[in-house]
Amino acid sequence: MSGTSGSITERLPIRHGAIVGAGGWIVGIVVSYALAQAAGVSGSAVLGVSVLDLSIVFYFMLHLWPLVLAPGTDMATAALMFTPIAVAILMVGGYRVASHADNAESGFRNGATATVGYFVLAVLSLLFALGSVTQFLFQQATGRTIVVVLFTGVLVPVVFGGLGGAIADWRSD
Fold it and tell me: Which of 2, 68, 108, 140 is 20 to 30 A from 146 in CA distance terms?
């Protein structure tokens, strides 16, 4: 640790990171919803679920495709094609948090604080989807719930939010 004192909440922009992370998750769901609408996907045509439910599952898939989709399938190809959306959202969020931080202790750590809001909304979205999407569809799409939450809500935002923060820190030097 560098010689900084105070609690972690005083040293890192956790509140700002949480807001940016939550906003990033919402933007991701909105983009997924818009893509579904543009592709003419009708939720009722797919197991009688809403387009919003499918958008949530699809947004999870953008994070999880290496874990749950067989390479070469149409769904894997679509998820791989749109994965840069989730990556870009997180990197921009991390960049934004780190570049507006009062304390530039570490760009990576500041950017990774976006995980807080991203994680909370990932869990809430998961609960929403489990309540409205059939268990079969969701289990097929995501596999084990704990892996889904940790990978989507923690690992991916820490890595890409942190990278965005590191870029902000690097650019400010």
Answer: 108
